[in-house]
Amino acid sequence: MHKLPYERFVQALIIHKEPPAKIIDILKSMDFVIPANMIALCKEIYTKLFIEEPEHFQSSSSEPKNNWLLDLGIHGLYHEFFRTGTETKSAFKGAQRILEDPRMRRAIQSMALIKITEEDIELLLNARYDFNFTPDEINFFLDNYFDVLDWTLPQIKTVVDIEPNREFKEMYLLALKGDKNYLFWKLGLNPNKSYQEMLQDMMNDAYYLFKENSKPGKSSDLALKWSSIAIKVAEKLEKSQKDDDDSLNLFQTIEFNLNPPDTGRLLKVEDIEPGELPEFEHRSETMNFPKVNTKKLNEGTL
Fold first, then answer.
1. b or e along 14-48 (b: 16 or more beta carbons within 10 Å of the residue's beta carbon)?
2. Which letter, b or e, does each residue of 244-278 get, where b requires 16 or more Cβ atoms within 10 Å of its Cβ?
């Protein structure tokens, strides 16, 4: 069955007892790509959650147990999105800003498809853009809104197949083809600098942005952010200088881990046929999840 890169988000919505029709409306409002069998996927996720915590769905209260949310990995997402916590964390705010920025969303999702780490995504984007997202914010975004870390190639292909945005699909195809230099060039990054040259540029930018924001009347928060980035880049630069091969290209140091262990075969772009987003209509605005037969559940026959 089709997997959802934003399954944790759907789990949070179901635990909040939102019906499928409203879940779909929320997802559409946030520009998520919705597969044709979304109702079936919601029911499948709901059934698994019901089996774990039937009391939650049978109770009139909508507040779930915190330990359950922690086990699912959605404690922060649930409380931040539904504002049940006392304070909104910056990681959640940053993830929401990524969702609202098509350029950042496209770049991060394209790189996530080829398993680039959150830290490297941050440094790569900082080399080109006035980048205002931290690794924690990128990590929050990828964990809850675009988690394809453990997906197989056929599963990743489904993301490409149903992507209706031509610019997003173009980047996904480049990522899966493995033409990393062309991909990063299309993203506006520079694949021609050596690893140390790019790190040096990053450190210089971060250092001077730190100095600018340290002046009276400027933002102390931004100064702290850029100083932190400068320190991290300096550590990477120091490590790279210990290596014998100073000519390593930054993009050659990033593993494109797309080969499944059983075949060792990289997905070719010709294997991927551009797909059309199927027409999708849910049956009713008032449709609710089906009731789970608790008698069968207790008998272990569900």
1. bbbbbbbbbbbeebeeeebbbbeebbebbeebbee
2. eeeeebbbeebebebeeeeeeeebeeeebeeeeee
User: Is 203 domain-assigned?
Assistant: yes
Q: What is the pTM of this model?
A: 0.67
Q: Quick check: helix, strand or coil at residue 132?
A: coil
Both 142 and 256 in one domain: the answer is: yes
Co-location of 170 and 263 in the same domain: yes
SS3 211: helix
The domain in which residue 209 lies consists of 195-248
CA atoms within 13 A on the CB side of 281: 3
Nearest alpha-carbon partner for 276 in 36, 60, 77: 36
> Which amino acid is present at 35?
P
229's tokens: 């980035």
Decide if 286 is inside a domain: no
Cβ distance 149 to 7 under 8 Å? Answer: no
Domain count, the chain: 3
* pLDDT in 10s for each residue of the chain, 302 residues: 578 999 999 999 999 999 999 999 999 999 999 999 999 999 999 999 999 999 999 988 778 999 999 999 999 999 999 876 555 566 898 899 999 989 889 989 998 888 777 777 776 666 556 566 777 888 899 999 999 988 988 899 999 999 999 999 989 988 888 776 677 777 776 555 666 676 777 778 778 888 888 888 888 888 887 788 788 878 877 776 665 454 445 555 544 444 444 443 333 434 434 443 333 333 334 445 555 554 554 454 44
Residues 57 and 146 in one domain: no
